[in-house]
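Hello again, I could really use a second opinion on something today. I've been staring at a protein lately and its backbone has me curious. Please have a think about how the structure follows from the sequence. I owe you a coffee for this, so here goes:
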Amino acid sequence: MDFLWTPWRYRYIAEAGKNDRCIFCDAMALNDDVAAQIVFRGKLAFTILNRFPYTTGHVMVVPYAHVAELSECDAEALAEMMRLAQNVQKALASVYHPHGYNLGMNLGRCAGAGVTGHLHLHVLPRWVGDANFMTTVAETRLEPEDLSMTFEKLHHALNT
């Protein structure tokens, strides 16, 4: 049997369910966008890299308000989230040239939300054939690019 070591995932697995803190509120409070991986700040929402991405360029659009449900989120913040998602899609297109995109929200633990108290919109670039055998048989994803490089590329694309 072969083993693939993914040490960067250990922190996620070890801390799952142990921390009541909100990763998005903590990222905003850090006031260090590079360390927090916040690639763009808007008036009512921001975009942040997923530290445990499904694919290179996996970005989340997050309102500043700590709310769990769409009905709790201000309409202006939701509108800005969609504008930021449009901008992220354009940036991903210019930087990575994906063949398609997945956008979605998981509200509630049973719906797949990793962060249940602070809603967020996932924006994922997709390529034909990007679901390789590793994902299919080994429940492992291969990321061709380090997060710091993804941050640099998307931060530049979103802030110029």
